[in-house]
Design goal:
alpha/beta; elongated; 6 helices
């Protein structure tokens, strides 16, 4: 074998490994993309099914406030749906869960309370949890309040696009919960943005759990 052939063999070997690496990356990317498409449809389908049933408490998950500390559209949708469930007799108490996002000076829970009272829910039927900053913290803090009062079951209320992730997170903390998505959805453009955010949030939740990380707060998730 000539010297030129001896020198060419390692180069061919390196090119072969490089090609295999790109093939693995491509296949992995395609599988991940397929998984994201499947998850998108799973999120959408899950949120459209009404699962509310009689429980100890209705938990309305907080959503962003406007700059003037008034409730945003998502919190209005969720709070009004929670009020409707209370009026139907699903549970005797509504728990508003949500702290102070960003630089706001009012908690999401307090804004939820205001909307509930305006919808006819009496103050004595409303409980506030005003320290949580994420869905995971919603679940932990709400679970703590439920345990203190001997409550075992809850109906969790949020937007439909949020129900898939919320249900899994609350269930992972050991709570027995039934999902009930607000029937009114945001405009199509906003819905797509929120769905994309849910995909990111679900990936982060799975990765965080796989790495054994503690409860973490990531703004916007």
């Amino acid at each position: 074998m000539s010297d030129s052939n001896i020198q060419a063999a390692p180069k061919r070997k390196k090119r072969g490994w490089g090609r295999r690496l790109w093939q693995v990356i491509l296949i992995g990317g395609l599988l991940w993309g397929w998984q994201m498409v499947y998850t998108w449809f799973a999120i959408d389908a899950y949120g459209r099914v009404e699962r509310a049933q009689e429980a100890d408490v209705i938990i309305v998950l907080g959503a962003g406030l406007r700059r003037d500390n008034t409730p945003g559209p998502a919190l209005r949708r969720r709070s009004l749906h929670g009020a409707e469930l209370w009026q139907q007799g699903i549970a005797p108490v509504v728990l508003c869960s949500g702290g102070m996002p960003g630089n706001r000076t009012r908690s999401e829970a307090d804004a939820c309370r205001e909307l509930l009272e305006a919808a006819g829910v009496p103050p004595e039927a409303i409980l506030l949890e005003a320290s949580s900053r994420s869905t995971e913290e919603n679940a932990l803090e709400s679970g703590r309040l439920m345990a203190e009062r001997g409550w075992d079951t809850a109906v969790i209320v949020s937007d439909q696009y949020h129900m898939y992730r919320a249900q899994h997170i609350f269930s992972d903390t050991g709570l027995t919960v039934y999902a009930s998505g607000a029937p009114i959805s945001p405009p199509p453009g906003e819905y797509v943005v929120f769905m994309l955010r849910e995909l990111v949030a679900i990936n982060w939740y799975v990765l965080k759990n796989a790495l054994g990380l503690p409860v973490t707060y990531v703004q916007g998730l």
